[in-house]
Amino acid sequence: MKKIILALSILIAVSAFVFSKSKDDAKQLLEADPNFQFHGYAVVDNVLFVLSWAYTNEENIERKIYKYVNGSLVSQSLKDPDIDFYWKKVIQRNDKNNNRIDIDENRFIEIVKPDIFNSEHKQFSPMDYFLILSEYDKQTLVSKDYVVQMFENYIFFNKDNNKLYFCAINNKKETIGIVEYDIKRKKFADFAVESIKSSDKKIFEDPIKIPKIPYLLYRTETGEFWIKPIK
Predict the structure, then answer these.
(1) Using CA atoms, how far apart are residues 56 and 17, in angstroms rounded to an integer?
(2) Is the model's pTM score more than 0.70?
(3) Phi, psi (deg, nearest 5) at residue 14
(4) Which of 48, 16, 52, 5 is nearest to 32 (CA)?
(5) Phi, psi (5° rounding) for residue 117?
(6) pLDDT band, residue 6 (cuts 50/70/90)
(7) Dihedral angle, C-alpha 100, 37, 41, 21, nearest 10 °
């Protein structure tokens, strides 16, 4: 019995080591799909689901649901009533009608148009937004060099590390993609970005934490899905 327990312990230790070694880099879970249309994320019983759809012809659509399982997104074979269940569980994406993200009782984030702070008369696109952190009676312009890219995208606040993740463009660095903002330290860091000048750049967006593990799932407009560890 002791030998069996020892063997299992070694196996678990080796598995943990292999998994930790693979955490350093981002991993692609789904390939690009020209017909992909993103509907949103759903979390049911601490399991993450990706919901999408595609036109089968001019009048009909096909809905798809993927389940996150051990580093993979697995397509689910479900009937319409079951698909309807997950469709109704979709997490609402942030937009101009859902422009507040609660951090705790005394702090929240607001999504605002940059025109309010546009003293330099810079030109902004319809997708450009700023983030304002409200703490008690104090307000801080979070965005600064990072302009949030919004078109019903997800902005994710991770309570575990007190960081905010969102798609942004940095005109000084000439980069675009997912950045993280440390609310406690008031500092930015690039998470998954690419050069704006790159002809084949991937614009990463819609970050969300995978339940129970310190990984962020995110996507591209073409239907690629990636995961990367959160520090």
Answers:
(1) 44
(2) yes
(3) -65, -45
(4) 52
(5) -110, 15
(6) very low
(7) -110
φ, ψ (nearest 5 deg) of residue 134:
-105, 120
CA geometry: angle 178, 40, 86, nearest 5 deg: 145
Contact between residue 103 and residue 121 where contact means Cβ atoms under 8 Å apart: no
Structure tokens at 129: 């937004």
CA distances (Å), origin 218, targets 46, 112, 167, 210: 17, 23, 10, 10
- Backbone torsions φ then ψ of 85, nearest 5 degrees: -60, -50
pLDDT band, very low/low/confident/very high, at 100 (cuts 50, 70, 90)? confident
Which residues have CB under 8 Å from 40's CB, separation 6+? 51, 90, 91, 92, 93
Helices (H) and strands (E) in the chain, counts: 2, 17
Are residues 215 and 222 in contact, defined by beta-carbon separation less than 8 angstroms? no
Please report, as a single letter, which amino acid is at residue 57. Answer: N
